[in-house]
Design a protein that fits this description.
Oligomer: single chain
Radius of gyration: 15 Å
Number of helices: 5
Strand order of the largest sheet: 2-1-6-7
Helix content: 25-40%
Largest sheet: 4 strands, parallel
Order of helices and strands: EHEEEEHEHEHH
């Protein structure tokens, strides 16, 4: 099989790029007036920047476990590389690291040290390596 690549919705990758590179995406959360919206899935209001009760939240451990488990199964045991939003900006990275421990060395978590499309570029580099048949260590290094 092939090493699977996962990122979070901060990567801002378009659906065609996700499909082209077989990148899986875990949504982050936007909390608006008590409503939990999944970034990239639920419609986010255009006036979000004008609202007073808006915050964000990283992916939950349960969401990450489910994504990693499915990707690992689909990899046929070749492994998973998870590229996430900078650890300096979000709790998503630390949650991902803690969650990945359940899978041992089969799931590698990469701190993109970036945000927005910077995360997307890192995820795409990993996915290109995976598509080229690279093994887990090489996909992580990419």
């Amino acid at each position: 099989m092939t090493v699977q690549v996962i990122t979070d919705s901060s990567a801002r990758l378009e659906p065609d790029a996700l499909a082209r590179w077989s990148i899986r995406q875990v949504p982050l959360h936007v909390l608006i007036d008590g409503n939990d919206l999944c970034d990239g899935i639920d419609p986010i209001p255009n006036d979000i920047h004008e609202r007073h009760h808006v915050s964000t939240s990283g992916a939950s451990p349960g969401e990450l476990v489910a994504a990693y488990r499915k990707a690992l199964a689909d990899s046929g045991g070749d492994g998973v590389v998870a590229v996430h939003l900078s650890a300096a900006l979000s709790s998503t990275f630390s949650t991902a690291v803690a969650t990945a421990r359940e899978f041992g060395s089969a799931v590698r978590v990469v701190n993109s040290r970036s945000a927005a499309m910077g995360v997307g570029y890192v995820a795409q580099a990993a996915a290109r390596a995976a598509a080229g048949g690279a093994h887990l260590d090489a996909v992580e290094a990419a």
